[in-house]
Amino acid sequence: MEGMDVLEEMGELTRRGQAFALATVVWRQPPSSSQPGARAVITADGELHGWIGGACAEPVVIREAQRVIAEGTARLLLLGTPDQFGGTVPDGMTVIPISCQSEGALEIYIEPVVPVPHLVVIGGSPMARTLASLARALGWRTDLVDGPDFVTDSAGERSMVVVATQGHDDEDVLTRAVAAHPAYLGLVGSRRRGATVLGYLADRGVPQQELDRVKVPAGLDLGKTTHQEIAVAILAELVQLRASGALPGSGTGGGARAGASAKPGRRKAADRPAEAVDPVCGMTVATASSRPLRHDGADYYFCCAGCRQAFEQDADAYTKKETRC
Q: In sequence order, what are the beta bridge partners of 41?
């Protein structure tokens, strides 16, 4: 996967609301196999799509990309041996020594890509239109749909859904909204009206644990307010919940929706055996892509044929020294 394929993968992950990192090679020192401009997408669970280098660089980039996703902060990596750079490394770079036989080096920029929040507002009232307008002003992906037009597939587990049908088939709309299992589900209405609607759904077999997730009334309690202020109160609650990390699946990280299948050929960290450390150079090695060498009852993995050959020639020299990470 390269070029437009990487961009298409980014678009697909964004549509699925999945956080990921984009790694771009900005400099290389020959004979590194990568080239400036090479890109790869790395997901929070360690899938890599694209090309940023060989066996030495890949596990390091995956590991650092997962940190970038978790922290939400971009990072500029310099991969090579320390003596290649000396005191010329600019401030702000993260130097990661690698000891491949190729003797190349790479500078890789890794940036987090966090999907924008997805808000679905159901209803056609002035309050619903105001809420949708305010959310769009924040840059959120916002859908404003009428009650009859809302279907369960209109939202997902990372979506925030506000039912503002205000007495127009509230029960049917809320039933479909509950089935979407959104990160947030709020019903606009009084507590009394909410109790009636939820009681109706409970009598028709909707699980209580699903009904308990419905916030009634939606939004922060600001007392008696106008419809514009109700919209502000709802948006303020959503911002507060997202900032506190209280909305499951709405923040960074996380895989695809349950039941979503991966495309053929994708390599998942969960599908690979554990990583190991090359005893010769100290590189992190993905064991799925390295043939082990058995020595004194233990398996050893290598980043390249040169390290494997060095180990075979004098295994004791590497098994007796302290393993470097």
A: 22, 49
State the angle between helix axes of 126-137 and 227-244 in degrees (0 to 180), rounded to the nearest 10.
Answer: 40
Domains identified in the chain and CATH numbers:
4-113 (no CATH), 118-244 (3.40.50.720), 272-319 (no CATH)
Annotate 74-133 with three-state secondary structure.
CEEEEEECHHHHCCCCCCCEEEEECCCCCCCEEEEEEEEECCCCEEEEECCCHHHHHHHH
Residue 297: which residues within 8 A CB-CB, separation 6 or more? none
In this prediction, residue 203 carries a pLDDT of: 96
Instruction: Share the mean pLDDT of the chain.
Output: 83
pLDDT in tens, 223-278: 888 999 999 999 999 999 988 888 865 544 333 333 333 343 344 444 444 678 88
DSSP characters over 120-179: EEE--SHHHHHHHHHHHHTT-EEEEE-GGG--GGG--TTEEEEE--TTSSHHHHHHHHHH
